[in-house]
From TrEMBL:
Residues of the ABC transmembrane type-1 domain: 70-262
Family statement drawn from the similarity comment of this UniProt entry: Belongs to the binding-protein-dependent transport system permease family.
Subcellular location: Cell membrane
Family annotation (PANTHER family): INNER MEMBRANE ABC TRANSPORTER PERMEASE PROTEIN YCJP, MALTOSE TRANSPORT SYSTEM PERMEASE-RELATED
UniProt keyword annotations, A-Z: Cell membrane, Membrane, Transmembrane, Transmembrane helix, Transport
Membrane association type: Multi-pass membrane protein
UniProt protein name: Carbohydrate ABC transporter permease
Positions of transmembrane segments: 12-30, 74-96, 108-129, 135-161, 182-207, 244-262
Length: 277
């Protein structure tokens, strides 16, 4: 009993340390966003601002078009998430249920594609989008995000499909449902946690992405929020720390809100009451 209690206490202690490690950057960013310029230049920084101020937020909105950039990021990220999930769901079903040479090749492509660095594909990607007249286009950027998120989305959803008992599909077939009807009416609802997790992954990846947006978007009115954040850094590399922290803090909120809204879907039981008796 003592050994079990000690093991559980160690697990909780390790989890607490991990949570502190994850929360530290966010909390420090929040503290910096509310500090005055005098406190930001202090040689003895404090966790809690002595004189909290909203001037950094006002200055950030005055200097850069944060709302417009956030709207651009939202359109690209949400579009990429929806399109990736719509494409990946039926493809993942085929990959999981039909073990053919084609599906094995697709699985290999999913694994290999994750090994390619961004810088390796940016030049051919730029040339392809240029020929399609999609440079400096949010639609073109959204397509890039879809292609980049699709391999991992396929791999992730295929694992969820394999967790669905085949008895569920056999019961649907006995009731006269075809493959498409089975996927839409029976399998897809059971994949709700997986679809939510995959959509969240695609959204957060696109929302935080910087490199593609920097290269493919040229005019300020088309740029996304991560690119706009770099404008708070001067030509000599000196950052306007207060407004930068305020803008970066605001940029993290949508990801947290999206996760909070769908976390029940992610953690909920996927197959509760699904199998016919």
């Amino acid at each position: 009993m003592r050994s079990r209690t000690g093991t559980r206490a160690g697990q909780y202690a390790a989890l607490l340390c991990y949570l502190v490690f994850l929360a530290f950057p966010f909390l420090w960013l929040l503290s910096t966003a509310f500090k005055s310029p005098r406190e930001l230049g202090s040689l003895h920084p404090t966790w809690i601002p002595r004189n909290p101020t909203l001037d950094n937020f006002r200055q950030a909105f005055d200097e850069q078009p944060l709302l417009h950039a956030a709207l651009n990021s939202l359109l690209a990220a949400a579009g990429a998430a929806v399109i990736a999930v719509v494409i990946a769901t039926p493809l993942a079903y085929v990959m999981a249920r039909r073990r053919t040479a084609l599906t094995r090749a697709a699985t290999g492509w999913v694994v290999v594609s994750q090994a390619f660095p961004l810088v390796l594909v940016i030049i051919p990607l730029f040339l392809v989008l240029k020929n399609l007249h999609l440079i400096n286009s949010l639609f073109g950027l959204t397509l890039v995000y879809v292609v980049w998120a699709l391999p991992f989305a396929l791999w992730m959803l295929a694992g969820y499909v394999r967790a669905v008992p085949t008895e569920v599909e056999e019961a649907a077939a006995v009731d006269g449902a075809g493959r498409t009807r089975t996927l839409v009416s029976v399998v897809a609802p059971l994949l709700a946690p997986g679809i939510a997790a995959t959509g969240l992954f695609a959204f957060v990846t696109a929302w935080n992405e910087f490199f593609f947006a920097l290269v493919l978007l040229k005019t300020p009115e088309k740029q996304t929020l991560p690119v706009i954040l770099t404008h708070f850094i001067g030509a000599e590399g000196v950052a306007d720390l207060g407004p930068l922290a305020a803008a970066a803090f605001l940029a993290t909120l949508p990801s947290l809100v999206v996760f909070a809204l769908i976390q029940r879907r992610i953690t909920g039981g996927m197959l509760t009451g699904a199998v016919k008796n």
